[in-house]
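Name: Putative manganese efflux pump MntP
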Amino acid sequence: MLEIFLLALALAADAFAAAIGLGATYQSEAKIPFLKTALLVGFYFGVAQGVMPLIGYALGSTMLGWLSAGASWIAFVILVALGIKMLYESRSVNDEETQINLSHRTLLSLAIATSLDAMAAGFTLNLLAINAYLACLIIALTTAVLSVVGAYIGRQSGTWLGSWAEALGGLVLIAIGVNMVV
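Structure predicted for Putative manganese efflux pump MntP:
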């Protein structure tokens, strides 16, 4: 269960960082109240982060028979690559304050973009002795809660915290990947 929660936290880091950015760009004179905006961010990011690992899990379970001999190493490579990608992206966060139009289309696009890593990580759910559906639910709920919290933090602190969250998520993914082959 600890592995699932750590995976959920790591995968939610992208969404958390994006939510901080969205909260930082929220304009107080916007037509939509901030609570509704924060809840929409949490909903979109949570659903996307819950569905994408299921897609990865389904793809992984169909290919697992073909790749069973090297599955742990494949999971290691995927998780470490995703972790390195998150570390790299955490260094290139743009601190410029720009207003973002928070339409449903924008939120859906951001949710999908931040959850692509979760689809790749979903492949590794086949290698853990866990219920993949429960894991995806935990990932979705963790992401939703952290996204709402991130939006509020961003509104108060600006975007600087988002890069630290993404870097930490990258380190956790690398640690989970190393743990799979050790």
